[in-house]
Amino acid sequence: MTSEQQARAPSSSTPPLSGASSAVAVESGAKLRDRPIDPRFAACEAQHHAAVQRRAQELSASQKAEDLVSSVVLSQSLNSDFLLGKTRPEYLQALATATRLGPDNELGAWMYAVYCRNDKRCDASAAVARLIALEPNNLAPRLLAIDVAERGSDKRRARALLRQASVTRYVDFRMGDFAQRQVSALSPLPQMPACGAASAAIAEHYQLTRPGTVRDVVLMNAKRTALFWFLAQQNELLEMCPHDRLWTPDDGCRHAFEILATSDMWIPRQMALMVLSTNARTTAERDRWRAQQRELDWLSHAGGPLRDSIPFDVIWEQGEIAPVIALLRSQGRWPAPQDWQPPAEGQP
Fold this sequence. Notes:
- Residues 1-30 are annotated as: Disordered.
- It comes from Agrilutibacter solisilvae.
- This is Tetratricopeptide repeat protein.
- By secondary structure, this protein is mainly alpha-helical.
- It contains 19 helices and no strands.
- Helix 8 runs antiparallel to helix 9 (155-164).
- Mean pLDDT is 85; it is low at 1-32.
């Protein structure tokens, strides 16, 4: 993220998820894996994995920070170790070297802090402090620091970090940057003849309404890996700030959730608005959060069917919400009609 982006009002995010949300995502992934796979798609996917492995090995021999970060992004896309809380020593070493060679490399600092958190031999507090120094206005590194403190059973430190987070202005967990790096690290696309011969199988596997391409395979894998990256960064905010207990003015809870409520991702904004509505101090405040919730409900109701038409790279660049608003506005359907109310649960 550029300095100009950092100076803007609160923006994109990836907030705390509940264990249930993680379980649902993992279960969904398992169901996709259990589905019968067309042999043509399997051949294409095998060539894709081999190409990823070759490119990762080439980049790992580099002495450039960007290349070393890209090598880890590609390598870990072939497994889900970090989602399971595991750290491969070779990844951690590559990222440590990358942060030394490129101390201002923000994605490298992010990845190093996340991986370091999962390895007891690594000084995670120092890694997160370096990340906070790079992005002082970003809430997300502060949440990661809180998670590190909680893992070390240092609740006093965790509370202090939450109070210090009151200086933040936006939240960005780098999901889009992570996905874009995975795609750009494979550019130009390597030759994958099996994918060229599996256009229909690719389309069927990914439920596309047009013939599938090699780029679809690359993009869909980046999307899946970025989701795992997102899930691997859960934090303790919901436990520290229960929505059914009134927060104190200086505990940092309200500020953190107000930042999350500006997220350009569906899950964090939905979660934050629900918590803020429950913990509102006045009727006027509750009405304000509920009005924002109604806007989000309209986005889901009217814009949900449009989301599949938005290219992944647009979502990774702009977030999940802004492109849908732009589409609805172009159709004269934004904002929501004044008399519209969300349908009752279970109703279309």
